[in-house]
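Researcher: Please translate sequence to structure tokens.
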Amino acid sequence: MPPHSEFKPHDSDHESHAVGEDGLPALSPQEKVRAASRSTWVSVVVNVVLTCVQIAVGIMAKSQALVADGIHSLSDLVSDFVVLFAGHHSRKDADEDHPYGHHRFETAASLVLGLILLAVGVGMLWSAAHKLQDPDSIPVVHGTALWVAGIALVAKESLFRYMLAVATRVKSSMLVANAWHARSDAASSLVVGVGIIGNLAGYPLLDPIAALIVGFMVGKMGWTFGWDALNDLMDRAIDEEEVAAIRKTLEETPGVHNVHDLRTRKMGDLIVVDAHLEVDALITVEAGHDIAVLARQRVLQRHRVLDLMTHLDPWRKPDLDHGPGRS
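Model: Translation complete:
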């Protein structure tokens, strides 16, 4: 049986941990928090300006689509504050009531974001449908609305690209959801622009139709985010590719002969893993413990795993026991 020291992680394990999957140096927890907070506050400023301008100009220019887009920007602003609130609470340390930490605050925030989007989308659909039932009441839109829609489109697309880059860097599903919320705003501004152009060209129905399309887009995105968050809260497993990568790390751990009953569940943007490790049946309990400790260290270093719970099963050579043993 190899000595205890041979089961310690090599220096290369620490070096590989210091480099992210994108080839750039991995961010520390503090750097991730700062980057996420900074990107969210940038979104807050942009959405405050857009909400005020879009709703004000939309009312003055008599464009229902632009007002709907402004309400969409307002929902973005609400979601930004939900993200800031969840980000603050998810960083709290584990306590007696939350032994795994507070990481699921982010998942809960994603669920709230989804519900907000869904409610906003339904409201837009209702308003636009009511307008379409009375075409004679649709006014001619002023040309100023088109300029505002164009500015909003550029601002939202730029915000989306910035926020998605940060979200990918810090590996936060909540920030990814918020970034795609900004992209939905950009798409809605494009639709609004087309509707306004149609109204100015003598087709007034296109403005409420644009508002209807925006409402559908917002509602669909809200349903998607909400459903995904709900599944994560119900302990949905991670994707097969990531499970395979974790399994490979465990199987390559010195002293581990086989891995089975590997289970995963999401904990915010991190993962909690349970696994059965088969080790030589003739080694001491202490030696088996050392192998389990090493396996845990390797998984936590190489994957976004919050905790790994292992169960050791005895393994015997096939000629002694006709195959691996399992408890």
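Researcher: Any highlights?
Model: Residues 29-61 form the longest helix (33 residues).
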